[in-house]
Specification:
Layout lengths: L6 H26 L10 H54 L7 H21 L3 E2 L2 E2 L6 E4 L6 E4 L7 H7 L6 H54 L3 H27 L4 H5 L1
Antiparallel strand pairs: 1-2, 3-4
Helix pairs in contact: 1-6, 2-3, 2-5, 3-4, 4-5
Length: 267
């Protein structure tokens, strides 16, 4: 029996230190809800989690872009629906102006309303959404995923000849009213095509939005498997490590008391 080197105490102290470290780690996991509290816990898993989190952040950005584009298209449709009403009334006025029982003065009254509606359409053609023109006809490329791929929103041009010709017509004469009717019908056909494009843009963007939502949910689930702690399993491990620490502390105290038995040999 030796006094200077107490191997039992050293071994007990080593095991106690390991149990204490495991207990501390388990406590951190339970309190944080994450099983990776430091890079040393799972360096590869942490690297994958960082990339997944970055991708999900980019998806949030793309989702915001898509939602703003949907709002843009809905704003377009709101204006276009009013233009449809205006053109319908203009076509009615151009037919009313062809009534042979109407005088030039009567047609002049029709022309006043016709001109007012045409001015409204011309004014709408200049509207914008957050500084971006709604009806300049330019295609807008909307970012639709985390890698920067885009969807081209078909542009709507309310300043095209199909509209400007109709809004510039004069129905104060019979021949003018007849020409106005032809031009307004052309404008209505163009508007129907443009509104169909707006609807197509909205539909496509809604698909992209659903796709982004599903992708983010799947990435979040994958990230959860890597980083989120299983509370039931970790609670069991915590209880185990807590018992080992208590037992180790008691055994270290017992091991430290063993050299005292040497005193019995000297007495």
């Amino acid at each position: 029996m030796v006094i200077n080197t107490n191997l039992s105490a050293q071994n007990a102290a080593t095991l106690l230190m390991q149990s204490s470290s495991n207990l501390s780690q388990s406590l951190q996991r339970l309190s944080s809800g994450s099983k990776i509290t430091s890079p040393a816990d799972d360096s590869a898993g942490l690297a994958v989690s960082m990339k997944l989190n970055a991708q999900m952040a980019r998806i949030d950005g793309a989702t915001n872009n898509v939602n703003n584009a949907v709002s843009f298209a809905q704003t377009q449709d709101g204006y276009v629906s009013q233009i449809n009403s205006a053109l319908s009334r203009m076509s009615e006025l151009s037919v009313l102006a062809q009534d042979v029982t109407k005088t030039t003065s009567d047609r002049q009254l029709y022309q006043q309303e016709f001109h007012a509606l045409g001015s409204y359409i011309n004014n709408v053609a200049t509207k914008d959404f957050n500084g971006v023109s709604l009806f300049d006809g330019n295609t807008l490329n909307v970012t639709t995923d985390s890698e920067g791929n885009t969807f081209g929103m078909t542009g709507i041009n309310l300043a095209s000849a199909s509209y400007s010709t109709a809004t510039a017509d004069d129905i104060t004469s019979l021949s003018g009213a007849q020409q106005a009717l032809t031009d307004v019908k052309t404008a209505i056909s163009a508007l129907a095509s443009d509104r169909a494009n707006i609807g197509s843009n909205e539909e496509s963007l809604s698909y992209y939005d659903n796709q982004l939502t599903a992708l983010k949910n799947n990435l979040s689930a994958a990230n959860s498997q890597i980083t989120d702690v299983d509370v039931a399993q970790e609670s069991t491990n915590y209880a185990k490590q807590n018992i080992l620490v208590q037992t180790g502390t008691a055994m270290l105290a017992q091991a430290n008391s063993l050299p005292q038995s040497v005193l019995k040999l000297l007495s």
